[in-house]
Amino acid sequence: MKKFAEKIVKAPVFEYFIITLILINGIVLGLETSTVILAKFGTWLVLANQIILAVFIIEAILKITAVAPKFKLYFGDGWNLFDFTVVVLSLVPATGEFAMIARLARLLRVARLISTIPELRLIITTLVRSIPSMGHVLMLMSIIFYIYAVAGYHLFHEHDPTHWRTLGISLLTLFRVVTLEDWTDVMYAAMELSPYSWIYFVSFVVLGTFVVINLFIAVVLNNLDEAKQERLAELQGPISRNEILKELRQTQQALALLQSKLERMEKH
């Protein structure tokens, strides 16, 4: 039974089948947002959800069976634990006080697409690994924001109280500027007070948008390279004795074939 489950779980067809089911589940959830479609095909949509959930339960059972009795191999993997949690939450009754939890759990099934596709897992792993390094970049950005917010309050709060009347509003205004969303309107309003106000805004955009955001990108790319190297090392893994013997047999066969060719050449 264990070998049978392991064979099914490792089959590429099974993986593609699960990915297809997750996509279908996402489409079904989207169709349920239409009152017209829900009124006409509500029963079929509910049946589709139940069938998909049943397949996900069978998938979890097969994966657990494939590693039995070493269940730590399954539950020790964060992605498997995420998939198992989604399946368990999906079993919550969709009525009563748990209705909202059940709906959210069904929605989380679409997020399983991330755990199923290795490339998406790599991206999420990279983002999670980047969080500690992001702390220093966020600290630098917070200092820049604070300095410019205090300066902006003192410079513009009397002329443009809408955007600079308090320190908190000044920070929100700077957030708007750093996203480059109509930031020139704020700058032109400040330039009515002084034509040199553009220096304040342009310097902040250069520091906040180009420098800091590029630091974020650099941190993510650095962690992405490290995650790729670790992933490659995991895929390669240690060389087993059987693999060495197989390579040796292939080498012996190649040498024997080469020797036979040399013997024929000598005869001619």
Number of helices: 12
Examine the secondary-structure arrangement and name the CATH architecture of the largest domain. Up-down Bundle
Rg (CA only): 30 Å
- As a percent range, the share of helical residues equals over 70%
Which structural class should the secondary elements be placed in? mainly alpha
Strand content: under 5%
**How many individual domains?**
2
Average pLDDT score:
80
Number of strands: 0
The CATH superfamily of the largest domain bears the name: Voltage-gated potassium channels. Chain C
The description of the largest β-sheet is: none
- Following the backbone from N to C, one meets helices and strands in this order, namely HHHHHHHHHHHH
- For the record, the CATH class of the largest domain is Mainly Alpha
Could you say what the CATH topology of the largest domain is called? Answer: Four Helix Bundle (Hemerythrin (Met), subunit A)
Topology record:
Blueprint: H1 2-10, H2 12-31, H3 35-67, H4 72-75, H5 78-90, H6 99-116, H7 118-156, H8 161-164, H9 167-178, H10 183-191, H11 198-236, H12 241-267
Descriptive account of the structure:
- The structure is a single chain.
- By secondary structure, the protein is mainly alpha-helical.
- It has two domains: 2-116, Voltage-gated potassium channels. Chain C (Four Helix Bundle (Hemerythrin (Met), subunit A), Up-down Bundle), CATH 1.20.120.350; 122-236, Helix Hairpins.
- Helices cover 85% and strands 0% of the residues.
- Helix 7 (118-156) runs antiparallel to helix 11 (198-236).
- The radius of gyration is 30 Å and the shape is flat.
